[in-house]
């Protein structure tokens, strides 16, 4: 049941390309001083120091302990993308599929 | 747009957490038993694609930037209810595994990105699709992320860490994402157009999904 559709291998290839691009975008974001409106709002109101890190995260800030920035980012991207693929796919099946629902 | 712990008061976090649980519960009931077999892997791939795309920060020199959130995109491709569950999965994994967005405030982040952006974006898409599907996708991405940013600004501005400066948080979040949202809209429209032309069989069957059960 739940046979993979024919587009699935191509989709996986696209996902792999996206994950391999993450170190490049990470480097570029650092180079231009990336800041989101949320950070600007925190700076403007003096809230920036109130942020607390999530203690239980396995790969905080999309980094892997012992690995450099670029390889760590790639590993985090691959792990996160694969985990999301599996969990979301499982949710889709858990919700209950019908062969002829479409 | 991922709010860390410590930014939002606990009462606000609990309120929006409860709202998110209730709305996602309704969404799950609306799609339950009506997810076509082909849509389960599509849900996984769209969620994974959004996760990966959210790691690609737009490197805009010398200014405020953001990354693709994908709420409207998920809604257009999967339908709003499955889209909400899709983005909620992404936001939850980001918080639990990568510490991107807080745990106490997870419900608020889900509300902004997986509920407001998804349903507002989808609303604009349905409203404008008769005048051009891809233009509608652009507006959906653009105004969907802006709406999500406004609810984030509301949560922040009603919290003590931001000294209850609601006008400041709403204006910075709203105006910032109104401008940055143009990129979200462009990505939403371009990727949707690519998928629609490459694989018309993946076109949404959302009309069926939103009809009364």
The level of helicity of chain A is 55-70%
Q: DSSP strand (E) fraction of chain A?
A: under 5%
Number of helices of chain A: 3
Number of strands of chain B: 1
The overall pLDDT of chain A, averaged over residues, is: 89
Give me the strand/helix succession of chain A. Answer: HHHE
CATH class of chain B, please?
Answer: Mainly Alpha
Radius of gyration of chain A: 19 Å
Radius of gyration of chain B: 16 Å
Please explain how this structure is put together:
Chain B: It is found in: Cell membrane. Chain B: It is a multi-pass membrane protein. Chain B: Keywords: Cell membrane, Membrane, Transmembrane, Transmembrane helix, Transport. Chain B: It holds the Pfam family CbiM. The complex is a heterodimer of chains A (102) and B (213). Chain A is mainly α and 102 residues long. In chain A, 58% of the residues lie in helices and 2% in strands. Chain A contains three helices and one strand; from the N terminus they run αααβ. In chain A, helix 1 (8-31) packs across helix 3. Chain B is mainly α. The longest helix of chain B is centred in the C-terminal third of the chain and has 33 residues, at 166-198. The N and C termini of chain B lie far apart (34 Å). Chains A and B meet through helix 1, helix 2, helix 3 and strand 1 of A and strand 1, helix 2, helix 4, helix 6 and helix 7 of B. Strand 1 (97-98) of chain A pairs parallel with strand 1 of chain B, so a sheet runs across the interface.
